[in-house]
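Posting for a labmate who doesn't have an account.
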Amino acid sequence: MTTAPFAETSISIRLYGHRLPVVDMLDALALQAATAADAGFDGVTISEHHGSFDGYFPNPLQLAGWLLSRVPHIWVAPFPLLLPLRPAGLVAEEAAWREKDPLDRLEKYLRTEGLADEAFFEQVQADGDELAKYVRSTTHGLEVPDIRDSFANVYVEAHPLIAEEQAWFEEYSAGFETDQEAAN
């Protein structure tokens, strides 16, 4: 197994996002990367688009860093990263921020100073997983508010611009209802 991306003898496979909630999609990508490593692939590639917005990754460089933190024994390449279409300074900043991950830095500090042991980090991970599960289930259980209420609560008194925007929204939304009725 080689750690050099795109080396002459290196074998990689492209990962694809799926139509899933973001957290689930990230979990699926980490599983795909781990499975690829277990199957003998040297690395994985990801891109911004896969022909549609399903699996769209707005920041493939950040996603590559995240995947490396989950599956560190392979290489990950944001490919293609269309550098001519992205400001060079932005790409450099994204790469630099990966090194500044505050959680990674805090963990390194706590370990270096002997302020926390492996059991502590395992408990933090378990607590974080439990909290994330609670937040996701609670969020999915929330009632979806009627967006029309948002128009009513912008200003204390009626405002002509808000009334105009609400009328546009009503007309726009009615088009979807007509499309759904025609499909049935």
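Reply:
Got it, the structure tokens are right above this. The longest helix spans residues 118-141.
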